[in-house]
Amino acid sequence: ALVVVPAWCDLVVALLRHAQGGSTSGYAPLTILPVVWVGLALGRRELLAIVTCTAALFAFPLLFLDAAMYPGTGWRGVILWIIVSAIVGFGANRVMSEQRRQTRQLASVVATQTAIATSPSDLQSVMNRVVDEAQQLTGAAGAVVEIPDGDMLEYRAVAGVAAKHLGLRLPSSTALSGLALQSGRVLVCADSETDPLVDLDARRRVGARSMIVVPLLSDGQGAGVLK
Hints:
alpha+beta; six-stranded antiparallel sheet
């Protein structure tokens, strides 16, 4: 139903073209406006429908109306306008889809910050909230907060597939988390089977094939790791 209005716009443009001499009129560029609107406001299915309407707007007169107003040589123009409409429409739709995705991500971040800020004030509750929200926000299979304890890192808060590993202790010196904590940098492991920085035995114990490791800093000092 939402395509009806831009389709009527195409019909108006078609009538204007016909009234002003057919293919020689200057109204053809107006057909881009409904395509742009649909690309910005609606989805790909609706965009395909309006591009089809645009194609019909240019092709129908060549097939069924006066050849003097719409000569057969105009087919090249038909193809050109269809291509231009598709490029402009799908380009606008891609931009808006990305904008909507970023807006949803921002809303998720704000919701996460709000949830953490309104958690009970004790550290364990905050850490539990952090791993739950981090897992949902990233779509990861699991999330962990590791806290240093001497030369070890302990799983103090867990979510998702990591839930069964609560209390797990790993050597800080050989773990990717330990390196992130020491360097203060976010580290990314795309494939733990091939990454030389990953403790392979520890990785296989928890079943993590890829990881993002974020150091948690307090006054510039490493206080823990979110993985």
